[in-house]
Amino acid sequence: MKDPVAQETAPERPRPALVLRGVEVFDGLVAPAEQAALVEDLRALIGAAPLFSPMTPDGRPMRVRMTSAGRYGWYSDRRGYRYAPKHPSGGDWPPIPARVLAVWRQVTGLARDPDCCLVNFYGEGAKMGMHQDRDEADFSYPVVSISLGDDALFRIGNPTRGGATESVWLRSGDVLVMGGAARLVYHGVDRIRPGISALLARGGRINLTLRVVD
User: Fold this and answer.
1) Strand intervals (E) in 15-79
2) C-beta of residue 80 within 8 angstroms of C-beta of residue 99
């Protein structure tokens, strides 16, 4: 007979392979077969909410194309950075795929699921400048990032702009958690190493960023 207490015990949270300035990196946490399944989930997601190129508040188009899933999607235009309840087309954001939520629960151990899954697509030459994730209401919840496809050189800074930084190559299947004192560190993507991964038929990198918004 199975022990009912053992059945109710949550699985142990995995240990990060690397902690850099408080940012946890779980090396290869998403296995190759699961990565391929996630890509299929994302094909359906993007079919419902197509990728678009946001505009920065100063009027420049971003190099990264994006979309979202969940209760909110992240959006930017001349009015500023913010979460929006609808896709730019006017339709609802699709639900966050179950496989993506499973990764969130595995690395956070939280019962509270994220409100937003931001989907960023990096083609060759795309990058993301140093920034903080601070459009959310409660910084006590972590930000979780899942990497799929080509490698990305991820730069980690400080809670305030400027100062020394450190970088790490994120590879397909890596999961990164910014929580606690590292929740508001500046971070960015300096460059993509194109053609490294065969996960995406046309190459490139997909980054999934999970956030509690409310």
Assistant:
1) 18-20, 23-26, 65-70, 73-77
2) no
CATH for 14-211, options being 2.10.109.10, 1.10.560.10, 3.40.50.720, 2.60.120.590:
2.60.120.590
Count CB-CB contacts under 10 A for residue 9. Answer: 8
Residue 47 parent element (H or E) = helix 32-48
Distance between CA 99 and CA 101 in Å, rounded? 5
What is the C-alpha to C-alpha distance for residues 79 and 179, in angstroms, rounded to an integer? 28
Residues 60/204, Cβ–Cβ less than 8 Å: no
- The pair phi, psi for residue 177, each rounded to 5°, is -125, 125
Q: What is the full per-residue pLDDT of the chain (214 aa) written as tens digits?
A: 444 333 444 468 899 999 999 999 999 999 999 999 999 999 999 999 999 999 888 888 888 999 999 999 999 888 888 999 999 999 999 999 999 999 999 999 999 999 999 999 999 999 999 999 999 999 999 999 999 999 999 999 999 999 999 999 999 999 999 999 999 999 999 999 999 999 999 999 999 999 999 9
Query: Would you state the structure tokens that stand for residue 80, as one six-digit string?
Result: 């500023």
Tell me the C-alpha distance between 13 and 159, whole Å. Answer: 26
CA 59 centroid distance within chain: 24
Phi, psi (5° rounding) for residue 176? -125, 140
